[in-house]
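forwarding from the other thread:

> can someone predict this with iron/sulfur cluster?

sure thing
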Amino acid sequence: MEKYIDLAKELKMVNAMIISPQQVFFDIRAILKCRWGCEDFFQKTIRCHTRATTYEERVEMVKRYNHILLAHSHDARELSVAVLEIERTAFLDGYYFAFAIRTCNLCKSCNAKEGSPCPFPDKVRPCDQSFGIDVYKTARNLGLPCEVLQSRDDIQNRYGFVLLD
Ligand code: SF4
């Protein structure tokens, strides 16, 4: 598992650690905020689809894993790139269920948000909020910073997950 921490650092992540599913906090209110509080939520776009899965199924999916890589970045796009690369590497290493959970920020400007076709539909992964993950509580419990930003100039602390095995 150390290999994936090293890879995350090579991919410019400021922190990376292996955690267990017990260290991921779920709260159905994350979905409440996703559906009514997120400026990026668009029911019909690939970016926000939950693919007909229920909250209970999504929680169960995460809990079936043993090791999860948590990546911390100040840059949304770098984080999306990193979790996909770590997922790919783990898959090629034989962890065939490796899977990233991270709001898609691959493109500088998201076509999907603007109602156009997504150029990389196979690379879109689900948003952690749509999975009901309380990222604030999860990060803080691990001693990592996660505060409500007060202005656009504040340093962003963004988090992504790679479910490994
Ligand atoms: S790959 Fe690009 S267009 Fe597609 S959802 Fe992600 S950011 Fe948007």
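Residues 46-47, 104-107, 110-112, 118-120, 123-124 surround iron/sulfur cluster (CB under 6 Å). thats all i got for now
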